[in-house]
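User: Here's a chain of 254 residues. Predict its fold as tokens.
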Amino acid sequence: MVSPDAAAAPTAPQPGAAQPAAPYVRVKQHLKGGLAAGRWPPGALMPSEAELVAEFGVSRMTVNRALRELQAEGLVSRTQGVGTFAAPLHRVSSTLTIRDLHEEIESRGHRHHAVVHLQRAEKAPAALAQQLGLESGRGGARVFHSLIVHHENGVPLQCEDRYVNPACCPGYLEADFRTTTPTQLLFETTALWRAQYAIEAAAPTAEEARLLGIGARDPCLVVTRRTFTRDAPITIARLVHPGTRYLLQGEFEP
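Assistant: Prediction complete.
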């Protein structure tokens, strides 16, 4: 005969069995999945804390933790008394990569100017066409290519070598990059959704060393960045900074 206490005792979890997700994780995964699927486009108002409490049957503290973690990951922005919004990509990107160089230089009270060495349409090599999602028709895929050196108070600070998907920014070749930057133009004219980036210490190419006025073996900070709409790659950029002239820094507040 089985005692009442034994019958009521919970069954011990089997080794390797999946454990139920914590309540805040369920809320977070629901919102994160909706953002990835485009349910809430950048800037859109998301469900309120009260709505999430009612939907998931959890406490406000649980919902608040899920939202705080999404905010820390740069996926949402929160305004007290207003609500939670899906974060625009350019705001997320600026915390993960570097700021637009023109804005960064001017924020220091210094003078920015750009020298455009190249701004044209080219035939894309097969590997580049694949990375940008370009279809190779008769004569090959067409890509926009720019090569720009950004200066701070007359000193070369960044060599920007960029390829752009023409379908995402048809007016790219008409832009005056002496008065704006490719980053500013793409923020204004494309539906940025996500980005991939890599940062490494590396030597410049011979051309980059010449354009930056540095030695062929001088160390550089190299940022490679690729951005996307929901449906297609937008651009691939290689940003090269002389190591002695550039500092990548930021701050964190819990």
